[in-house]
Amino acid sequence: MSPCGSEPNAYEDDLGSALGTWCGTTLAHVRAAMSYVPPPLAGPGPDPDDRRFQDPVWRSGPYHRHLLQAYLTWSRLALAAAGTPYVPARRRRQAQLLTQVLTEALAPTNFLPSNPAALRLARDTRGRSLVRGVGNFLDDVARRGGRPTKVPPDAYRLGENLAATPGRVVYRNELMEVLQYEPQTAEVRRVPLLLIPAWVNKFYIFDLAPGRSLVEWAVREGFTVFAISLRDPAPDQSRLGLEDYFLRAPLRALEIVGEITGEPRAHLVGVCAGGMLAASAAAWFAAAEETGAASLTLLASALDYAPSGSATTATSTQNSSSTGDTAKTSEAELRLLTRLLSNRRGLVDGRKVSLLFDLLRAQDTIWQPLTSGWLLGERPRPFDIWAWSEDVIDVPRALFGQTLRLARDNTLADGRLRIGQRPIDLPTVVQDAFVVAGVRDHIISWETVYRSARLLGGDVSFHLVPSGHVGSIINPPRPGATYRTGRGVLPADPREWTARCSTERESWWVAWTRWLADRSGPHVPGRAPGSARHPAGAPAPGHYVRPR
C-alpha cells in the first residue's frame, strides 16, 4: 500500500486494531486519573473564532479543561512578557513574533495525546486514521522536507484549471514575459490595464481558478488586459537590483503595451511589492512630466513603512538613525537574514521566504495542515490560493537586500528613492488611485496600506475588505461579499476613517471595474493579442511561469 492509500489491508487491520485499542485504553486511564474537575477557566476562555478549541471536549472533559486552562494561562503570560518594558524597544516586535510562534507550536491540539478529535477518530476507526497519518507524515518528509501538505500535488494544472484565461505571450526578455489576454467582448475600453506582480510569487495571483480570476473578470468586463510574468532568476542574475527590475520589467512592459494598443497611458495594477513598482512608475513619469500611468490600483501594498503611531516619517527616520549602533546592528541583521534565506544558487530561496510568511500565520498555514494530515489522517482539499502560494520563485540577493533596506529606512515614503536618475516622489502622483486592504492581513496591516495611500497626490478611493492578505485580493462577486469605503479626503487617523465609512454589500471587483470604466475613455473594437512588431507567441500563461 502506498503511504497515502486509503484501502486497508490485513496488516493495516491488525495494526489499526492494536492502535485503536491502545487509544481507547489510554482515554479510559486518562479519564480515571483526572477525576478532579478543575474550576471554570479563570478569565476569558479561548477566542470564539479559534477553531482549535471548538471541540466540546475542551469544556466538558476534566482532563482537557485542565489542559486548556494551563495552556491559555501560560501562552497569555508569555505573550504579555514579550511586550513588557524589560524587553528592549527595538527587540520587542521580534520577541513578540517569536513568542507567538512558540505558543502556537506548543498548542495541545498539535499533539496526539492531547488532541481529543484525533484520539476519538483513532478509536472510532480502530487506528486506521493513525496509520494514514503516519503515511502522510512520511510522504511529507520525503517530498517536502517535513512541511505539512496544504494542497493535493496534482489538483491544479497551469493553463487548465489555474492561470487558464486565454491569452498569448507578446514579449519576452531575460526577466519577464508580457502576456496579453484575448478579448471576450466585441468592444473594449480604450485605456488598457497592466498587472504588476510581486517578485516573490508568480503572477497568476491575478489569474487563479476560473470564476476566481481577476484577469477573467476584467476581460469579461470589456478591458484589454496585459500582465507581467517574472522569470525565476538564474544564478548569474543574483546581482540584479531594484533599478534593473524596474527598468526592465514594468517600464519596458509599458512600452510594449503602448506599442501594441497605440495608447500612451495604461492603468497600473500592483499587488503587494508590485504595488510599490506601480506607484514608483507613476512617480517616475511625473518627475519628467511624462504620461504613462492613467490610474493606480494598489492591492495590499505598502509604500510607508513607518511604525504605527509615528508623528511623521521624518521623525521616525531621525529617531531610527540617532545612534550608530542601532543602524549597524540593523545592517548586520539584514545581512544575516539574507544569508539564512539564500540557497546554493546564490539567490534568496523562495521556499524559505514562503516558510517565513507561513510563520506569521502559522496556526492556519502550518499547524492546521499538520493536525489534519498527520493526526487525523486526512488529505487536503484543493484550494487555488494554497496552490499559488506554494509555487514560489527565487529572488536575486541584491534585490532582496535593497527591498529590506528600503523598508527599514522608509526611503520611498521619505522621497529619498531615486531610479534612473529620477526622484521617486509619491505626492507628485496626481492620478486617481483605487486602494484595497484586508482587515486580517498578516503581512501588511491595513493601517499600513491606509497610511501608504495618503502619500499619493491624487484622489484616493480606499476599500477595506474583511479578509486576509490574499483573500482580500481574490474577491469575486458572490452573495455576502462586502467592503467598507468612504468619500472625500482620507483623514490622518485611520480610526476616524472607519468611524465615518460605510459598508457596501458587493464585491470590490464590481466597484473597481465601475471605477475604471469612468477613467478608460470610449469603447474601441476588441484587440487581438500582439502586433506586427510584437507578434502573438506562446499561449498564456507562457514559459516563465513553469518550473525550470
List the helices and strands and how they pair.
Elements: H1 10-33, H2 57-60, H3 62-82, H4 89-105, H5 116-124, H6 128-144, E1 167-172, E2 176-181, E3 187-189, E4 193-196, H7 214-220, E5 225-230, H8 242-261, E6 266-271, H9 273-287, E7 293-299, H10 313-320, H11 324-341, E8 347-348, H12 350-360, H13 362-375, H14 384-390, E9 395-396, H15 397-409, E10 418-419, E11 422-423, E12 433-438, H16 446-453, E13 460-465, E14 483-485, H17 494-500, E15 502-504, H18 508-517, E16 523-525
Parallel strand pairs: 4-5, 4-6, 6-7, 7-12, 12-13
Antiparallel strand pairs: 1-2, 2-5, 3-16, 8-9, 10-11, 13-14, 14-15
How is this structure best summarized?
With 548 residues, the chain is α/β, with parallel strands linked by helices. The chain has 18 helices and 16 strands. It has helices spanning 10-33, 57-60, 62-82, 89-105, 116-124, 128-144, 214-220, 242-261, 273-287, 313-320, 324-341, 350-360, 362-375, 384-390, 397-409, 446-453, 494-500, 508-517; strands at residues 167-172, 176-181, 187-189, 193-196, 225-230, 266-271, 293-299, 347-348, 395-396, 418-419, 422-423, 433-438, 460-465, 483-485, 502-504, 523-525.
